[in-house]
Inverse folding.
């Protein structure tokens, strides 16, 4: 069966040596390393991968766990991506944690079997979405 690729956004944690890894950071079991233009799949026994269907969802969900713009800019990046949707309805958050159901994740989250990072969304655009989204009381 032919894979159907869709467009979305992926938030990645940027390590000190500039590796792009899963949004939760390099200390989590099952961490996935992303490379621009390369197909990425979940670590063995983990997954599927989480992506966001809109830039707004990616930015607002990530900022729920941060204190300010500087924390985001220094440790995270948002990339345009293409992904193949997963048929699974739950995602492993960590090998030692429980699963999370898709319906319990934030609006705009999608589960993916594979992700290819495209271009990085400019920080100015991320900041604009951040300021506009939270100024609306969300």
């Amino acid at each position: 069966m032919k894979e159907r690729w869709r467009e979305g956004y992926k938030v990645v944690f940027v390590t000190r040596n500039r590796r792009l890894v899963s949004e939760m950071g390099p200390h989590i079991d099952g961490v996935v390393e992303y490379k621009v233009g390369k197909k990425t799949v979940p670590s063995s026994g983990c997954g599927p991968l989480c992506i966001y269907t809109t830039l707004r969802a990616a930015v607002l969900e990530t900022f729920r766990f941060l204190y300010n713009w500087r924390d985001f800019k220094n440790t995270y990046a948002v990339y345009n991506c293409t992904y193949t949707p997963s048929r699974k309805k739950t995602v492993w958050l960590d090998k030692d944690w429980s699963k999370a159901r898709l319906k319990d994740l934030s609006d705009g989250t999608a589960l993916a079997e594979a992700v290819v990072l495209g271009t990085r969304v400019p920080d100015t655009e991320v900041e604009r979405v951040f300021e506009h989204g939270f100024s609306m009381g969300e």
User: Anything to note?
Assistant: The chain has a mean pLDDT of 80. The two ends are 40 Å apart (CA to CA). The chain has one domain: 6-135. The CA atoms of residues 12 and 23 lie 4 Å apart.
